[in-house]
Amino acid sequence: MSIDKDDVQKIAHLARLTLTEEDADKYQHSLSSVLTLVEEMQSINTDGVLPLSNPLEMTQRLREDVVTEDNQRDNFLANAPQSEAGLFLVPKVID
Amino acid sequence: MFEQNISSLAKQLRDKDISSVELTQYFLKRIADLDPQLNSYITVSEQQALQQAAAADALIQSGQGSSLAGIPIAHKDLFCTQGTLTTCGSKMLNNFIPPYESTVTSRIQQAGAVMLGKTNMDEFAMGSSNENSFYGAVKNPWNTDTVPGGSSGGSAAAIAAGLAIAATGTDTGGSIRQPASFCGITGLKPTYGRVSRFGMIAYASSLDQGGPMAKSAEDCAHLLQAMAGFDEKDSTSSETATEDYIGNLNAPLTGLKIGLPKEYFGDGLDPKIADTIMAAVKEFEALGATVKEVSLPNLKLSIPSYYVIAPSEASSNLSRFDGVRFGHRCDDPKDLLDMYMRTRAEGFGEEVQKRIMVGTYALSEGYYDAYYLKAQKIRRLIKDDFTSALSEVDVIMGPVAPTTAFNIGSKTNDPVAMYLEDIYTLSVNLAGIPAMSVPAGFVDGMPVGLQIMGNYFAEAKLLNIAHQYQQNTDWHLQSPSMAEGV
C-alpha cells in the first residue's frame, strides 16, 4: 500500500506536524513501507473475533468523586514555556 | 565491586564493611571514567545520590531498610523523577523537571535505594537500537561498534559495564528483553498491570509495562519486590496480590514442563543462536524439566498488529506535547496552530513523527475498522495462542532476538528491517503475559539471551526458573573487558 505526498501532508496536518517538501518525500516512502507491512492483516479472517483492548480484559475501576489533590498551580506553571498571572500564556486565539 | 550482587552488598552494608556513600562514590567515579565511551546516562544526579546514600547509611545504622537500602541503581529517563530532569530521550522534554514522582521510582526510593541518574533511551521508547535518542546513540559495552538494543539500551549498557548495580526499564514491544539480550544481562517484563504506570511517560498505554534489569534473576527479584503491586493512581493496575519473589527463587525445577514454539526456530533465526538456545534447554532438562513442542501459529501477525496498535495509542498519547504547558515551544509562533505544528516538528525526532503519523492515519475517519479494530482482533488471536500453549506447558522458551547486537547505523535506513527484529518479543506485550531475557551464552563474542515466557502473574515462577539456571551456569557473571578498565 502506498500513499502520495498529498496524503502525507494531510496526515501531518491532522497530527499537527509541519513538514517541509523534503520531509514529505522522506515520510511518503517510510509511511508507505509501514502501511505495506501492516497490510498482511487484511488477508486474515477475523469474523466473529472480538477486539482485545486490554490484555487482562479489565473494566474501568471507579472511585468516589472527591478531591484527592492539593492545588499545585505554581509547581505546574514552573514548567510552562510562558505564563502570566498564574495562567498559561499562548498566542492570541480570538481577535 | 561492580560485579557483586545485591544480597552480598546488602550484607556488607549491614556489617559496616562499606558505607552506601563509599559505594555511591565508587559508582559515580566509574560513570565519570567509563560512560564517555558508552553514553548510557543522560543525567547523572551526583549530589542527590550522595544525599540519598547518607540517608541510607543512617537507615541501615538504625537497623531498618529493605535489601535495596543503600544500593546504587539507575532509572530509565522515562520515569518522572520529581526535581530531576526527565527527557524521555527527546528534545521535546529537554527542559522538563517533573513536579511529581512516578510510583515505581517512589517505591524504590522508599526502599532506600540510591538513584545514580537517568539512563539513555530511544526517544519516547520508540526503537530497538537506542539510535533514536536526541542525546546520542548508546554503545554496547561488549563491542562499542554495535548497538545495545532498545529502547532501554542505556539501562542495559550501564548494568553490563558496571555503571549501576541494577536499573529500571520499560517494555512495550521488547524494550527490556532485547537490550538485556544484546548486553548480556537479565531483564523481566512483568504481566501488564503488575507494575504501576503512574508517572511513566506513556508510549502505548495498553502495552507499556515497567520492569527490573540487573545482572541476575536474584537481583531482579529484589527490585521487582519493591516495584510491583496495586496502585490506585494507575487505572489499569492489577489488584492481584504480589508474591514473595525472593523467597520463591530456590524452588526445585523437577517436573517443570517447557514448551518450545516451532515458530520461534524458523527462518530468519541465526543458527548459532538456535544452538545456544537449545544448549540452555538441555541444561533445564538436566535440572529435571521436560520439553515438548508447542505452536503459536499467529506469531507473524504480531508485527502488523503491534505496528498499528502501538502507533495509534502513541498518536493519542503524544498529543499532549503541544508547547502550552511544558516542554519545548517554537520561537515566535504567529498563531496557535503555527505554535502546535512547529513545536511538534522541532521537538520530535523522525521515528516519533513517523509513528505519530502511522497512528493518525490508522485512526482517521474511514480507516479505523480496517486498521485499529482489525489489529485488536488479531491481538486476541495472539493472546488465545499463548493461553492454549500455556495450558499444555508451564513456560515457553525461545530466543529473544533473531541476531546478536548489530552494528550502529546498519539498519537505520531500513526501518522495516528494524521492526522485523522484534518478531520474538512483540507478541508477549500484545498478550500481556510476563517474560524474561536470561544470559545463555555468546555467539562470536556477543551475548545471547534466552527468553522465558510464562502465564499471567507468573513472575515468581519465571524468576525461580531463571535463578536455578543461573545457579548452574555463569553466563550472567561475565563482564565485558571495558568494564575492567578502571
UniProtKB/TrEMBL annotation, chain A:
Keyword line: ATP-binding, Ligase, Nucleotide-binding, Protein biosynthesis
Gene3D superfamilies: Glu-tRNAGln amidotransferase C subunit, N-terminal domain (1.10.20.60)
EC number(s) per entry: 6.3.5.-
Function (record text): Allows the formation of correctly charged Asn-tRNA(Asn) or Gln-tRNA(Gln) through the transamidation of misacylated Asp-tRNA(Asn) or Glu-tRNA(Gln) in organisms which lack either or both of asparaginyl-tRNA or glutaminyl-tRNA synthetases. The reaction takes place in the presence of glutamine and ATP through an activated phospho-Asp-tRNA(Asn) or phospho-Glu-tRNA(Gln).
Quaternary structure annotation from Swiss-Prot or TrEMBL: Heterotrimer of A, B and C subunits.
Listed HAMAP family: GatC (MF_00122)
Protein name, per record: Aspartyl/glutamyl-tRNA(Asn/Gln) amidotransferase subunit C
Organism listed in the record: Marinomonas sargassi
TrEMBL record, chain B:
Active site feature: 76, 151, 175
InterPro entries according to UniProt: Amidase, Amidase_CS, Amidase_dom, AS_sf, GatA
Top-rank EC class of the record's enzyme: ligase
Presence of the UniProt keyword Ligase in the record: yes
Keyword terms, alphabetized: ATP-binding, Ligase, Nucleotide-binding, Protein biosynthesis
Catalytic activity: L-glutamyl-tRNA(Gln) + L-glutamine + ATP + H2O = L-glutaminyl-tRNA(Gln) + L-glutamate + ADP + phosphate + H(+)
Enzyme Commission code(s) on record: 6.3.5.7
Complex formation: Heterotrimer of A, B and C subunits.
Protein family per UniProt: Belongs to the amidase family. GatA subfamily.
NCBIfam families: gatA
Function: Allows the formation of correctly charged Gln-tRNA(Gln) through the transamidation of misacylated Glu-tRNA(Gln) in organisms which lack glutaminyl-tRNA synthetase. The reaction takes place in the presence of glutamine and ATP through an activated gamma-phospho-Glu-tRNA(Gln).
Protein name as it appears in the record: Glutamyl-tRNA(Gln) amidotransferase subunit A
Higher taxonomy: Bacteria, Pseudomonadati, Pseudomonadota, Gammaproteobacteria, Oceanospirillales
